[in-house]
């Protein structure tokens, strides 16, 4: 065995791990020794192996369970000898090995793992053809919306059990196209039954706009792909997880009817963030995809940090994302049951009362240097003594931190989650639901798996940081002989240029760096909601990323692009002038007034249309004018013309008016309605003055949001994350103008979603996407809304204008 981390890192790189991943793996006290043994058994301690073989060895080491580990050498050699060639075969091998108490029967092993079986392309084609013929009516009716479920079912065809998954997918798609043809407008159905416009532009005069291709949007054909393909598709069916006693599974199946049951178990000590959106989608989505149930369970075992506002916000956020819990439960619902099982654990000599301080526990676990681990002097005290001490803890006869109840696990295990974890601690804080009934509270490590068991959870889905907790999770369920769910870990959703830590966000809020937990610069879900990010876009983004078993971090630009593409399909368009400059059309009479009919979205009649006034005085954005021309500038310049969106004639600048400081305050222009109609090179947005129409609408504020932090990883700043705050993360425009169509958009959206200001979303043409902020003073809708409106920029447009 390797003596130090450097040797392990070198060894792990021989199977194709990158240097960073090798370093991370070497730090994993559970995985590192297992992977080391796997590599040695496979015979690659000196030689470098093929990368695909190395990936399978890593899969084996990271997924092998306790029951199968006695056959680790056999499984490793089966991979190195190219008998096991896919992750599916490795999974089947582990399952076979865990049920093999004695030496493995090679013939039965080969049969169970599909070794030597080659599925030809012709066999795949024949099986897929028969499969599609059986499901032809569904395919014809639902078209590409049925693709995900058809693929999932195809992979379950016995003849294709050991076929290459990519080959199955390619053949299925090929035959589907032959039967129903390629995708067309029928397959681009989105929420509300509206179809994506083909080739639609921002206006009927060919305004330039972002041309980046759309990200894949969450249409029906992709809705369940995260659950029916990839890692989640490999999870066991209810009843497939082995129990310490067979009768436990019999009872479980009798109570559940074989349904998939999941749970989302947040701690009510803060607001949910975008990472939780993935957990919500995974747990609720997996259950829904399998016609199962999902609990919302508040893990309320720490009364010091829990507040009612967090409970309320969590429930509202889940509902906002579009999910409904089967039941809402609390860990505190089970306090009596948890206490009874703690007594049982002590009686079985698997828990003990400990008077060590946290510092002493840390040293006995190896301390900061990871030294020798030692057992606590209280570990082998008589069972009766621990029962008495635990009773005294419950009666409030000890101070906080003076005594704990610890689980008697294995202090010499390579897994830190086996080093006699604390099960109960003394805490004299009233609980929001149980009041003063308890002065001892169970820990997460003790509570979580048992509550999963009580609720008959079939799939305990959690993020990768809980991977080492899986062993202790199973140990505790078996120790008290209760039904044992299966834990599966997947990658978290991490995003650059922000922080997710509740403690760090609290610091930002408390020190007034941001204006509350829902400040739109944060990535809490209340903040994203206030910023105007649609819940459908968040869900679609999460589902598009999918589920893997390795961590990664996403660029902010990728998230914003997904949101931008979603909004492009779903929201109306208006003209907003962020930084206005006044224009007087000198050749028009003072009372000149025209009305132009403007669609809320070109080529989408379902969005409707509205009228906007046009007269002698208009406003354009200051960025659309220059005093001095250049060859690559196509907007307004003195002596040069530019088009106005939705207006038949262009305007030409003939003069500039400045104040005593030299600042431009007004432009004199000519409306070219009497000259030959010459097509301008570009068109710009505008709004007009009209007393009759109460135009323009004067906005109180437009808030433009940039990244809150300068660098991708704020916590890496040598002076701390606060030193990395972007001083320009919020820009405010206070003299902005909007066209009168904005009021109709307000009225429509607020009628559907009363008091949900962020539901008022629209594209400000050539500027970005915006929503109404809750700071808007609109308490009296019958009153004039002028100068009471606050808008938040959701995402910008990627400008291509010259």
TrEMBL record:
<dbReference type="InterPro" id="IPR011035">
    <property type="entry name" value="Ribosomal_bL25/Gln-tRNA_synth"/>
</dbReference>
<dbReference type="InterPro" id="IPR020056">
    <property type="entry name" value="Rbsml_bL25/Gln-tRNA_synth_N"/>
</dbReference>
<dbReference type="GO" id="GO:0005829">
    <property type="term" value="C:cytosol"/>
</dbReference>
<feature type="domain" description="Glutamyl/glutaminyl-tRNA synthetase class Ib catalytic">
    <location>
        <begin position="259"/>
        <end position="568"/>
    </location>
</feature>
<protein>
    <recommendedName>
        <fullName>glutamine--tRNA ligase</fullName>
        <ecNumber>6.1.1.18</ecNumber>
    </recommendedName>
</protein>
<dbReference type="InterPro" id="IPR007638">
    <property type="entry name" value="Gln-tRNA-synth_Ib_RNA-bd_2"/>
</dbReference>
<dbReference type="InterPro" id="IPR042559">
    <property type="entry name" value="Gln-tRNA-synth_Ib_RNA-bd_N_2"/>
</dbReference>
<dbReference type="InterPro" id="IPR020058">
    <property type="entry name" value="Glu/Gln-tRNA-synth_Ib_cat-dom"/>
</dbReference>
<keyword id="KW-0547">Nucleotide-binding</keyword>
<dbReference type="InterPro" id="IPR020059">
    <property type="entry name" value="Glu/Gln-tRNA-synth_Ib_codon-bd"/>
</dbReference>
<feature type="domain" description="tRNA synthetases class I (E and Q) anti-codon binding">
    <location>
        <begin position="684"/>
        <end position="773"/>
    </location>
</feature>
<dbReference type="Pfam" id="PF20974">
    <property type="entry name" value="tRNA-synt_1c_C2"/>
</dbReference>
<feature type="domain" description="Glutaminyl-tRNA synthetase class Ib non-specific RNA-binding">
    <location>
        <begin position="7"/>
        <end position="165"/>
    </location>
</feature>
<feature type="region of interest" description="Disordered">
    <location>
        <begin position="190"/>
        <end position="222"/>
    </location>
</feature>
<dbReference type="GO" id="GO:0004819">
    <property type="term" value="F:glutamine-tRNA ligase activity"/>
</dbReference>
<dbReference type="InterPro" id="IPR042558">
    <property type="entry name" value="Gln-tRNA-synth_Ib_RNA-bd_N_1"/>
</dbReference>
<dbReference type="InterPro" id="IPR001412">
    <property type="entry name" value="aa-tRNA-synth_I_CS"/>
</dbReference>
<dbReference type="InterPro" id="IPR007639">
    <property type="entry name" value="Gln-tRNA-synth_Ib_RNA-bd_N"/>
</dbReference>
<dbReference type="InterPro" id="IPR000924">
    <property type="entry name" value="Glu/Gln-tRNA-synth"/>
</dbReference>
<dbReference type="InterPro" id="IPR014729">
    <property type="entry name" value="Rossmann-like_a/b/a_fold"/>
</dbReference>
<dbReference type="GO" id="GO:0005524">
    <property type="term" value="F:ATP binding"/>
</dbReference>
<comment type="similarity">
    <text>Belongs to the class-I aminoacyl-tRNA synthetase family.</text>
</comment>
<dbReference type="Pfam" id="PF04557">
    <property type="entry name" value="tRNA_synt_1c_R2"/>
</dbReference>
<feature type="domain" description="Glutaminyl-tRNA synthetase class Ib non-specific RNA-binding">
    <location>
        <begin position="168"/>
        <end position="252"/>
    </location>
</feature>
<feature type="domain" description="Glutamyl/glutaminyl-tRNA synthetase class Ib anti-codon binding">
    <location>
        <begin position="572"/>
        <end position="672"/>
    </location>
</feature>
<keyword id="KW-0436">Ligase</keyword>
<keyword id="KW-0030">Aminoacyl-tRNA synthetase</keyword>
<dbReference type="InterPro" id="IPR049437">
    <property type="entry name" value="tRNA-synt_1c_C2"/>
</dbReference>
<dbReference type="InterPro" id="IPR004514">
    <property type="entry name" value="Gln-tRNA-synth"/>
</dbReference>
<dbReference type="Pfam" id="PF03950">
    <property type="entry name" value="tRNA-synt_1c_C"/>
</dbReference>
<dbReference type="InterPro" id="IPR050132">
    <property type="entry name" value="Gln/Glu-tRNA_Ligase"/>
</dbReference>
<keyword id="KW-0067">ATP-binding</keyword>
<dbReference type="Pfam" id="PF00749">
    <property type="entry name" value="tRNA-synt_1c"/>
</dbReference>
<keyword id="KW-0648">Protein biosynthesis</keyword>
<dbReference type="GO" id="GO:0006425">
    <property type="term" value="P:glutaminyl-tRNA aminoacylation"/>
</dbReference>
<dbReference type="Pfam" id="PF04558">
    <property type="entry name" value="tRNA_synt_1c_R1"/>
</dbReference>
């Amino acid at each position: 065995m390797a003596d130090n981390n450097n040797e392990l890192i070198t060894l792990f790189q021989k199977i194709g791990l990158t240097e960073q991943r090798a370093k991370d793996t070497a730090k994993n006290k559970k995985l590192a020794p297992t992977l080391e043994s796997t590599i040695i058994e496979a015979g690659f301690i000196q030689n470098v192996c093929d990368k695909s073989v190395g990936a399978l060895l890593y899969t084996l080491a990271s997924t092998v369970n306790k029951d199968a580990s006695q056959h680790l050498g056999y499984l490793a050699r089966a991979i190195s000898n190219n008998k096991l060639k896919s992750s599916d075969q490795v999974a089947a091998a582990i399952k076979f090995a865990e049920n093999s108490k004695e030496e493995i029967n090679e013939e039965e092993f080969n049969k169970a793992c599909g070794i030597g079986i080659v599925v030809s392309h012709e066999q795949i084609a024949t099986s897929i053809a028969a499969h599609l013929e059986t499901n032809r009516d569904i395919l014809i009716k639902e078209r590409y919306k049925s693709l995900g479920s058809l693929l999932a079912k195809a992979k379950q065809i016995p003849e294709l059990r050991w076929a290459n998954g990519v080959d199955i997918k390619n053949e299925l798609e090929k035959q589907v196209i032959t039967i129903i043809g390629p995708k067309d407008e029928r397959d681009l159905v989105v929420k509300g039954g509206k179809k994506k416009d083909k080739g639609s532009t921002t206006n009927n005069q060919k305004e330039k706009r972002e041309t980046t291709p759309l990200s894949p949007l969450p249409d029906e054909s992709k809705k369940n792909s995260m659950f029916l393909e990839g890692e989640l598709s490999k999870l066991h069916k209810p009843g497939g997880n082995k129990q310490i006693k067979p009768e436990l599974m019999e009872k479980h199946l009798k109570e559940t009817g074989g349904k998939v049951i999941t749970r989302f178990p947040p701690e009510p000590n803060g607001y949910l963030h975008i990472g939780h959106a993935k957990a919500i989608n995974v747990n609720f989505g997996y259950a829904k995809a399998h016609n199962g149930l999902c609990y919302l369970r508040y893990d309320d075992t720490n009364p010091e940090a829990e507040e009612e506002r967090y409970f309320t916000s969590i429930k509202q956020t889940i509902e906002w994302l579009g999910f409904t819990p089967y039941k809402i439960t609390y860990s505190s619902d089970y306090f009596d049951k948890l206490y009874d099982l703690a007594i049982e654990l002590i009686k079985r000599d698997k828990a003990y009362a400990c008077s060590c301080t946290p510092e002493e526990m840390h040293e006995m676990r190896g301390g900061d240097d990871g030294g020798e681990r030692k057992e606590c002097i209280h570990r082998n005290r008589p069972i009766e003594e621990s029962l008495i001490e635990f009773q005294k803890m419950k009666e409030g006869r000890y101070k906080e931190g003076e005594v704990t109840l610890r689980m008697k696990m294995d202090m010499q295990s390579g897994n830190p989650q086996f080093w006699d974890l604390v099960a109960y601690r003394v805490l004299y804080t009233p609980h929001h639901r149980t009041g003063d009934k308890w002065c001892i509270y169970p820990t997460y490590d003790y509570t979580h798996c048992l509550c999963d068991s009580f609720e008959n959870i079939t799939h305990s889905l959690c993020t990768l940081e809980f991977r080492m907790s899986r062993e202790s999770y199973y140990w505790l369920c078996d120790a008290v002989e209760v039904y044992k769910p299966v834990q599966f870990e997947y990658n978290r959703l991490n995003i650059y240029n922000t922080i997710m830590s509740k403690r760090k966000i609290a610091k930002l809020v408390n020190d007034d760096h941001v204006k509350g937990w829902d400040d739109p610069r944060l990535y809490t879900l209340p903040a994203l909601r206030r910023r105007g990010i649609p819940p459908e876009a968040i869900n679609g983004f999460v589902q598009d990323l999918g589920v893997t078993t390795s961590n990664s971090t996403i660029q902010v630009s990728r998230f914003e692009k997904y949101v931008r593409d979603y909004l492009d399909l779903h929201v109306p368009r208006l003209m907003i002038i962020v930084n206005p400059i006044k224009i007087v059309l000198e050749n028009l009479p003072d009372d000149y007034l025209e009305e132009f009919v403007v669609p809320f979205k070109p080529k989408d009649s379902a969005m409707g249309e509205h009228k906007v006034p046009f007269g002698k005085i208009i406003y354009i954005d200051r960025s659309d004018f220059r005093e001095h021309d250049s060859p690559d500038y196509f907007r307004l310049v003195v002596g040069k013309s530019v088009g106005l969106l939705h207006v038949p004639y262009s305007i030409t600048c003939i003069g500039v008016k400045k104040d005593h400081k030299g600042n431009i305050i007004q432009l004199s222009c000519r409306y070219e309605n009497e000259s030959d109609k010459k097509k301008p090179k570009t068109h710009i947005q505008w709004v007009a003055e009209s007393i009759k129409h109460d135009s323009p609408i004067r906005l109180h504020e437009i808030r433009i949001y940039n990244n809150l932090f300068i660098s991708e990883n704020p916590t890496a700043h040598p002076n701390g994350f606060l030193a990395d705050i972007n001083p320009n993360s919020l820009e405010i425009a206070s003299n902005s103008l909007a066209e009168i169509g904005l009021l109709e958009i307000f009225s429509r959206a607020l009628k559907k979603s009363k008091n949900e200001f962020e539901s008022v979303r629209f594209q400000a043409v050539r500027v970005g996407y915006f929503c109404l902020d809750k700071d808007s003073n609109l308490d009296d809708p019958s009153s004039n809304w002028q100068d009471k409106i606050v808008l938040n920029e959701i995402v910008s447009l990627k400008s291509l204008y010259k």
